[in-house]
Amino acid sequence: MEVKAGTNVVYTIKSDEKLLSGLSVVRGTEPHNITMTSEMVKQLGSGCHHLTLHASNMVTFLEVSKDLQLREKMLDTMTDVVKTDGTKSPQEVQVLAGALVPLIKTGAELSTSAQEGAALLFANLSSSLLHMDVNASEENQEAMLTTANVIVEGLDNILNYSSNKKISDAILDALNNIQSALLFFKEPDEDPTIIQQTHINVLVRRVSPTSLHTNSINIPNCSCPAFSLPKLPSAILPSEEPVDVRMLSFDKNPFSWKEGGNISGFIGSLSLTTTDGSGIPVENIREDIEILLPRPAGEQVNTSILYLGNFSTTVIDIPSAEATLVLKMMPSKDPLPFKVLLGYNHYPTETNYVAATEMPQQGATQEEKYTWMIQPEDLKGNTGVYYLVVRPIVGPGIKSVNASLSITPITASCKFWNESQLDWSNYGCRVGVNTTHLETQCLCNHLTFFGSSFFVTPNLVDPSRTAELFATFANNPVVVCFVGALFVAYLLVVVWARRKDIQDTAKVKVTVLEDNDPMDEYRYLLSICTGHRIGASTSSQVTVTLLGTEGNSEPHHLTDAKKRVFERGAVDMFLLTTPFSLGDLQGIRLWHNNSGSHPAWYVSNVMVQDLETKQKWHFLCNSWLSIDIEDCSLDKVFPVSTEMDLKGFSNLFFMKTTKDFSDGHLWYSVISRPPSSNFTCVQRVSCCFSLLLCTMLTNIMFYGIPTDPSEQTMDLGAFQFTWQQFMIGVESSLIMFPVNILIVSVFRFTRPRKTSCCLRKNKKINTQGQASTLQTVSSQTATMNTSPSASLDVIIKDITKIAHSLSKTAKSNVPCKQSEFGPGQENDINAILSVVKDFIKQNKATDNTEPKTQPRVADSGAHAAPTEGAIQKKSNKTHYLYRQLCHIDSELSQLGPSSFPDPHSYNQALQQVQSMKSLLEDQLFTSNSVSPNELTSKTVSPSGSTDVDGSQKKRTCCHRGLPWWFVFVGWLLVIATSVIAGYFTMLYGLKFGKERSISWLVSMIISFFQSLLLIQPLKVLCLAIFFALVIKKVDEEDFQNVPFERNDRNIGDCNGQHIIRQHGGLYEPPPPADIEKMRRNMIMERKAFALLREILIYMGFLWMLLLVAHGQRDPNAFYLNTHITQSFCGDIQDSVSATDIFNWANTTLLTNLFGVYPGFITDGNSKLIGNARLRQLRVQKKSCQTAGVMLKVMADCNAPYSWEAEDTGSYEPGWNKQAGDNISTSTSSPWKYQTQAQLRAYPIWGKMVLYRGGGFAVELGPDLQNASSTLEDLFNNKWLDMYTRAIFVEFTVYNANVNLFCVVTLLLETAAVGTFQIQSDVQSIRLYPSAGSLRIFVMTAEIIYLIFILYYMFIQGKLMKQQRWLYFKNKWNLLELTIILLSWSAVAVFTKRTLLGNRDVTYYQNHKDKFASFYETATADSLLQYLIAFLVLLATIKLWHLLRLNPKMNMMTAALHRAWTDIAGLLMILVIMLVAYSIACNLIYGWKLSSYKTFVDALMTVISLQIGIFNYDEVLDNNPLLGGLLVGSCIIFMTFVVLTLLLSVIIGAFNQEQRNHKPSEEDEIVDLLLRKICSLFGIKYKHVKDTQNPPVNGSSDYSRNILNTSTPDVKIF
User: Fold this and answer.
1) pLDDT in tens, 964-990
2) Long-range contacts of 837-840 (CB under 8 A, 24+ apart)
3) CA 1120 to chain centre
4) Quick one: which of 360, 497, 700, 748 could link to 681 by a disulfide (CB 3.0–4.6 Å)?
């Protein structure tokens, strides 16, 4: 019956007052079905009945009420129903209990009162079972058991989450009622009735008193308590009545509401009652009752092995004062006398001990002899650490014993539930000697609830047993060897780390550029960061230019002769000088010359710092300087980044991630640490080593600690953990992390012993005592610059250089080059000096006007700083001009008037220089209030500004971080933690044993790599995202302590050195024409090497394919097939009758099927798999209509075979049709039709038609005698008659010599003309791989072939993504796609064949006396061979595409493409003529010549005629005139006309292509590839065009013309 959805409704179906079925729907939204059990239907009986559907709606409040309130309301309603209506049958109780169970499934959400109500409701329902008047029918017994199961399921749910006394009492009452109800129908000594749920197990049984003590009382296949009763006194048990046994088992404490007792594990209850339910008291009996209580799975077992060659000790922890200590000892030899002493908190002695005994003791077994039990009263209530000492007992003169002793301590206690005191007690119970780590044996003198308390001994190790534990190294070397290997690996890695630190030290410096002008004083610090992308480093020569508001710097070549620059992920720093300040930087220009093996460069970011003003500019580049990546540019200008750019998410995320991985992450930073970090690579490796050993120690300390099954599990969504697991994590962290964080902090924050700033502080230059003037400076400069290379041209170049530097300043009209001066002025020194003097005067006039206007703009504090900066910049510029003029003055003094053409010109130039110096002196001393002493004492270092400016910074620098000697504290902590952790880890490993050590090692390694490779990287990424989204702080790099790498020449020296910039091309970006030429050359090279790589990869792919194809075929298969075919078909004629078939079967077939050796065919080399099978297909009688004229002559007509005419009936021998009831039911009868599913056969193609897989079948075997008898019976009953159309002989053999299965199918078919033609189908397959090295070789080839397929899938996927629908227009792409699809199809078929082969072999092994069909496996193998054959065909065709670079092949392809239209037309004509002649030949000769019997045969014969394979005699003998006319016309029209025209078209197209052929880009690629290969092997290669058309204007122009013949597609690669 179907009911519609309802919200919180209880549905019941009743017949009168009898409850038949029910359903509770809580917030239902789907229709539900109420199903009545078969028992209810039987009780109703047949006929029509009036049934009533009752629906009780529980919704008494708004729809928005919560489900919890609804469930509680439904509980109240059900309670009221039970109280008012009651229950009258077990079925009604089952319905109500079944409705109640889902309501309390998640009862923890219910209130306490609701939980109590549910428990009481179950108690009431179970109580109602005791008051029902039901008979002991089988139906009632089954209904009672089902109802009890439902109630126990509900009680099991309540027990899972309730800990209330009322609920506990209700559960126990309900279980007692259930046991009583189940005992209603029990007979004495029947099998027990058992109900098993997740937490509760119930057993009831009725036994005779005499058999009560014979068997153990337990629940089979359950880890539950077991009870063994002794022979009870007759006064206790009834004399003649049977005894009811009631047993309960709980895996959770039902008395958990009572605190104390420390009960854990299983709880068991056993009670004996009479048949009327009265209890039988069992207490204070003489013999103990044995109770075996299982201990939880996974409990820690701490077994210590002591070697008794000396005093041996071990440590035992006893956590409870009520626990009994059980020591299980196992000696290496028996008997082994020894004495055992136990001491509390100290080692026991002969006079001072807690307990002592001598072993072995009295006992029936060795286990009892060597088990020592120490009762709680002997331990005097002391808990904690006890020390156990074992001393061997030896005779006089014997010093030591060569024996060992394993000791397993177990702490346990046995308690029972005292119902009068409502508490746990151990009165009358004690722990038995057979207690093990798997179960606790309790011996008690009464029956009640029993529980066991166990305490897991922690993983403790005694350091005093070091020698004993290491003596077991030979048996358990796992952990010791692993720790030792870690120490050795650490030493090796430290050597590598030290070398890396030395290399990093060389990288930590600021490179002073060699092309800096010695006279330039303004300093800029460049920090250039190369990206982390693959191929980001460059081998090119990089040049930089700074772009400022007040001018641009000269191009500078960024290089360092002592180290490699611009490596991947590296930060390179350079000191660049300019004559004066460039103002606020607006951009930076970078380019390179695209030289070296890897010229492409990915620049991440650039930072420029003005060392005078400490101002910084950041440039976020994140760009490639390459001719073939992104925008294909070698020269780029990057603007200065704003604060918003720096605080962008992408920049902050990448910056934080890179920094955390390279410096913050302890493990990854070992490889990628910043070279400038004080935390060296050796220190990082040592910290990793210490951290790993500490992790191993904490892991092994808590490894294997069992969890308490009764402990509450905390659920956080998908994560669940217990309080014990949480505490283990906290304790591990407290042990491991503080000391390791301390070590890392010490190493990271300890400053070097002598920092660079401190060294500069110790090298102060005492300039206060110098009293020099500008004249002194001038004289010194003149004295120092005594170079013989001074000349008039040099002086003119120096003055022009000054003019050029002045031209870059704003508001200046000074010419910058000699060519820009007036006519005749480029070599006139006086004219050039006049221009410079004009600039100085103009500058002075500007300075004189500024003080007048300054007060107007200086009133605002916001402009004070820029004004001061402007004055500083003007001072730097004036100072620069003054030093340059001093240099010119010294050169003029050295040169003298004799080198001038006119002495007056010399005097004029000298006066001009002196006057300009005077003007500059006024500006230096007057405008900026600079004294001569300050000017002469201001010494400038390349690393920063003057010493005075940096004094405060140096004081703060030298006091930052921990003192240098703290590094020794860090190393001491590393050594201590490593040694201690490694030592105790080895001790734990030796104590654990080999198997447990291996288990711990595997789990530790897996967790370590999981943390290293997954958890920690995710943590770094999450922190980087938080940093970029929330913090948004840009970290500033500190370059204060970075040393400067000075050049040999002094920056402030003016020794007449002229900066001659070699390789002038470096200081100008490559012109566009050269870039285009380099780009084309690179693209051509890449294409050439891509082609070479493609050819080599494809050769490997084709080689692997051929190996796979060869591995799937066996040459012996042909010989095996030929041998079997000749053996079975050699003696039979082409046309035979049914009688001949029987004769052939009795002679040839049976003789070869059952050879000389039993079970083998022919000569005994091939094993017959199962039996052979004969199968025939028949047609129905009168399956066709006879012509009306011939009805009198031939009344019966039997059609050829077809699926419609096939006979599928069942007959008796002799094809006699009987009544349906008399037909044999045997499915193996040869007279009964069987379907192809029953025969495990499949349709087969014959020469005439497709035959169905069913038929009338009979098996031949298992020996010659039975087979002959079967054939004789078939012959006598005329199994073959006029209605037979096809006969199949099927069998399978296996030849172990060649490891081949051969599936044989012999088909004899007839076209209803009275004769049969034989056809054989023999297929050899290999189902088992061949043994030996060849199989391994083939398997390797198959795996490599699959890797090739995955590679080509990846390549084609990329092409498909790029080209989209254009991809499918390329025929070579379709060929690749076809190869991939066929390859995966072959893999699928190979898998299918393997599965089918395993299936068929399994069938044969299970049914060796039956026919085993391997036909489907053979079909799958044939399909696999076809697929591989087509793969080889298509892969070979692809060689045409790879050989397209051959000029002749390329020309042939182009010729075919040109003539394709004409070729298609001629091919169409050829096909039409072939079809016409084939039809004509079939109609003329098909009835008399076998070569033309079908259209396909005629078509093949006509095609053979064109290639000269033809039998002229059979045609001409039949009809000379007609045959000659037909054959002659076919030869003339097809061979002489159509085929000749086809060849002429192809030859003509080839000649035309040869005349019009133009070299393509692929020809250039081939030429380049050949030149590269020849140069690799030192072979001189000369292009053909070089000999035919030598260049007229030189080879370079010719090469340029070749490169420009076609426009390359840059985006191809």
Assistant:
1) 888 888 889 889 888 988 888 888 888
2) 837/912, 837/915, 837/916, 837/919, 838/814, 839/803, 839/806, 839/812, 839/814, 840/881, 840/916, 840/919, 840/920
3) 47
4) 497
The values of phi and psi at residue 574, to 5°, are: -135, 150
The model's pLDDT over 1049-1082, given as tens digits with 9 standing for 90+, comes to 444 443 434 444 555 567 788 888 877 777 777 7
Report strand pairing: 1300-1309 vs 1316-1325. Answer: antiparallel
Could you tell me if 1090 and 1613 are in contact, meaning their C-beta atoms sit under 8 angstroms apart?
yes
Separation of alpha carbons 1171 and 831, rounded Å: 121
The number of residues in the chain equals 1613
Residues 6+ apart with CB under 8 A from 1583: 1567, 1571
Query: What pLDDT score does 8 carry?
Result: 56
In the predicted model, what is the mean pLDDT of residues 47-62? 53
Query: Is residue 428 scored above 60 in pLDDT?
Result: yes
CB 224 within 8 A of CB 294: yes
Geometric angle at alpha carbon 442, from 438 and 446, rounded to 5°: 150
The predicted pLDDT at position 117 comes to 82
pLDDT digits (tens, 9 = 90+) for 879-935: 777 777 787 777 777 777 777 777 777 777 777 777 787 777 776 665 544 554 444
Q: What pairs with residue 292 in β-bridges? A: 226, 441
CB 422 within 8 A of CB 384: no
Q: CA–CA separation, 767 vs 461, rounded Å?
A: 70
CA 801, CA 888: separation in Å to the nearest integer? 11
Residue 1547 is encoded by which pair of tokens? 């030859």
Which distant-in-sequence residues (6+ apart) come within 8 Å of 45 by Cβ?
Answer: none
Rounded to whole angstroms, the Cα distance separating 863 from 871 reads 13
pTM over 0.70: no
Count of other CB atoms within 10 angstroms of residue 1036 = 9
Structure tokens belonging to residue 161: 């989450």
Average of per-residue pLDDT across 1524-1542: 83
Structural tokens at position 1068:
């100008």
How big is the CA angle at 1165 (ends 1161 and 1169), to the nearest 5 degrees? 55
Q: Coil, helix or strand for 1203?
A: coil
1340: left (phi over 0), alpha (psi -120 to 50) or beta: alpha
d(CA 1040, CA 370): 75
Question: What is the token pair recorded at 1133?
Answer: 């004629």
What Rg value do the Cα atoms of the chain yield, rounded? 52
- Give pLDDT tens digits for 295-350: 776 666 778 878 776 657 888 888 777 788 888 888 888 888 888 888 888 888 88
Residues 6+ apart with CB under 8 A from 1324: 1114, 1117, 1120, 1121, 1300, 1301, 1302, 1303
Q: Which residue has the tokens 């049934």?
A: 51
- DSSP single-letter state for residue 291: E
In degrees rounded to 5, what are phi and psi of residue 738? Answer: -55, -45
Distance CA 1226, CA 763 (A): 115
Do 1463 and 1542 touch, CB atoms closer than 8 A?
yes
- Arithmetic mean of pLDDT, 285-291: 86
Nearest-angstrom CA–CA distance, 288 and 1149: 79
Over residues 1128-1151, mean pLDDT: 86
164 SS3 class: coil
Average pLDDT over residues 1216-1226: 54
Please enumerate in sequence order all residues whose Cβ is within 8 A of that of 695, keeping only pairs 6 or more positions apart, or say none. 736, 1004, 1008
User: Are the C-beta atoms of 382 and 319 separated by less than 8 Å?
Assistant: no
Q: Longest Cα pair distance anywhere in the chain, in angstroms?
A: 156
For β-strands 510-512 and 571-578, DSSP reports them as parallel
What pLDDT score does 858 carry? 35
- In the three-class reduction of DSSP (H, G, I as helix; E, B as strand; rest coil), residue 677 is classed as coil
- Tokens 């180290």 locate to 563
DSSP for 1072-1092, written as a single string: HHHHHHHHHHHHHHHHHHHHH
Give the DSSP letter of residue 1014.
I
